[in-house]
Amino acid sequence: NRYLCITIAKPLTKEGIQSDSVTIGMLIDQNLVHTMPFVNDPAIMVRTVHTTCERCGILDCLERVEAPVVLQKMELKADQEKALRLLN
Questions:
Q1: Which of 13, 63, 66, 67 sits CB 3.0–4.6 Å from 53 for a disulfide?
Q2: Reported pTM
């Protein structure tokens, strides 16, 4: 699926150590293209992303800010289940 995402970010504090952001994602379908014909403009930056960093399997992602901990836990559980099956 392709989405047009618009993000607004701002610092949480005056020091700017942490930030907060909100992203609005709109599915790019024929209705959106009809309503917002600029969505296919080649000047718009395109990025391949997943749902969240914690669930993302794109290992060479330059935008990653967190480890894929959900995937790591799933892999560990699968490895443990495989090891238990081998014991039987």
A1: 66
A2: 0.53
Q: How far apart are CA 21 and CA 3, in angstroms?
A: 17
**Which of 54, 34, 35, 47 is CA-nearest to residue 3?**
47
Residues 8-30: tens digit of each pLDDT: 999 888 887 888 889 899 999 99
DSSP state of 6: E
Between the alpha carbon of residue 46 and those of residues 22, 39, 40, 69, the distances in Å are 18, 11, 10, 25
- CB-side exposure of 24: number of CA atoms within 13 Å? 2
CB distance 21 to 36 below 8 Å: no
